[in-house]
Every structure is written in structure tokens, then in C-alpha cells.
Amino acid sequence: MPRTPEQHRAMRAATRERVRTAAIRLFCHRGYAGVDMRAIAAEAGISTGSIYRHFATKDELYDDLVAEAATGLRALARSFTDTDLVVEPLRGFVEVFLSDLSRDTGAVEFYLLMNQVFASGVEAGPERGAAVEDLLRAHREVTGAVVTLIERGRGRGLTRPAPAAELATCFFATLGGLAMTRSALGEAFVAPSVATVTGTLLVEETTV
Predict the structure, then answer these.
(1) Which candidate, 109, 83, 79, places its Cα nearest to that of 95?
(2) Cα dihedral sign, 161-162-167-173
(3) In Å, what is the CA distance from 139 to each residue of 71, 105, 156, 180?
(4) Largest CB tally within 10 Å, which of 3, 88, 98, 122?
(5) Which of 27, 178, 26 is nearest to 101 (CA)?
(6) What pLDDT, on the 0 to 100 scale, is given for residue 176?
(7) Do the beta carbons of residue 143 and residue 175 sit within 8 Å?
(8) Among 64, 75, 77, 78, which residue's Cα sits nearest to residue 110?
(9) Smallest Cα–Cα separation from 142: which of 195, 79, 88, 66?
(10) CA distance 37 to 172
(11) Closest C-alpha to 113, from 11, 10, 27, 199
(12) What is the pTM of this model?
């Protein structure tokens, strides 16, 4: 029985996602320069010819991943700023982050890959600078949103008295360190509680 158009679209979407997952894994562990489309296709379990039906070049695939990260960071920034709450949005984000670390979903490799982008910028030439620069802008936006959240909470006695920018730096350093530790330890990783992580910023546990 021939496949329906809906089945074709679903299969194409599933294959595209396998390609993206394979690319995340290889870029994370080998770096951008150490990966080619043939290797990504093999990791995804498809032919080299098939991968080009989804992404014309390695740059296009990489930029797609970078753009997804930028979109996610901006959504996170909005979740911190489009509310008058302080504790609940912070806890909610950390809960999801820790859940992603605990499950083998590829989230750790994606997070570490984006940290590589932050650290090294454009590896393979200036033609990819726009996507990377947009990711860096998005990262600055979410950092600014956390600074705003801290300052909003300070007036209510919810956040610590240290400079907000310093607290935000420590908060994101904690998240990055947890992702690296999860990658290194694998199943031996012991995830901290939400309260332990949010304790970087909050004076005490509360539901305000």
C-alpha cells in the first residue's frame, strides 16, 4: 500500500530529527572541523545521498542547531521577564534542566555543543558568523533577564544581596558545570535538587 502524504511528511520529519541528533553528538565530541556530512549520515543510519535532502551543507545543518538554541534562549528570557513572579519561573526552568540532565535525551550534548560555540565562536569561517552572533545576543538577553529577575526579587527579600550580575554569572556557571559533570560521569551522575541549584540566587525556599 502506498504511503499517504502525511506518512511521507512524518517519515521525513523523523529522519531530519535523526540527522540533527547525530550532528549534535558528533559536533559535541569531535568539534565542527572534525565532522563531515558522510560521518553525520552514518551516525544517523542513512545514506550520504539522503542527508542532502534535509540539509544542503554542513554549515546549514550547524546553523539550524545554533538557531534552535537562540530561539530557546529567547523563550527562556521571556519566561523570566513576562511575569511578576520571581521564584516560580526560576524553579520551573531548573526543574526542566535537571530532568533533561537525568534522562538520556541528547540534551546534555546539545548544551555542551552550544557552550563550545560560546567559547570558540566561529570555527569554520566567517560565513557562519551571523548565526553564531545571534546566539551570543540571545545568551546576553537571557543573562540580562536573570539579572532583572534577581533585582526584582531583591526588593521582596527573595534573592541574595550580592551584585545581580555576579549572581547570574555563578548561576549559569553552575548549570554549565552540571552538564559537564553529567557528560563525564554518565549514569553515576547524582543530580542535585532544585533547591540546591536555585540556592545560588535565592535567600530561601518560598512560593512567592
Answers:
(1) 79
(2) negative
(3) 10, 22, 26, 18
(4) 98
(5) 178
(6) 92
(7) no
(8) 64
(9) 79
(10) 32
(11) 27
(12) 0.86
Residue whose C-alpha cell reads 552550544 in the numeric block: 114
Q: What is the pLDDT of residue 69?
A: 94
> In this predicted model, what pLDDT tens digit does every residue of 4-58 receive, in sequence order?
867 778 888 999 999 999 999 999 999 888 999 999 999 999 999 999 999 999 9
| 147: its cell numbers | 539579572
pLDDT the model gives residue 103: 83
Of 26, 43, 46, the closest CA to residue 35 belongs to: 26
Are 118 and 136 in contact by the 8 Å Cβ rule? The answer is yes
Mean pLDDT of 110-137: 76
* Gap between the Cα atoms of 13 and 23, Å rounded: 15
Grid cell, residue 163, equals: 551584585
Q: Which stretches of the chain are DSSP H helices? A: 5-30, 37-44, 48-51, 58-81, 87-102, 107-120, 129-154, 164-185, 194-198
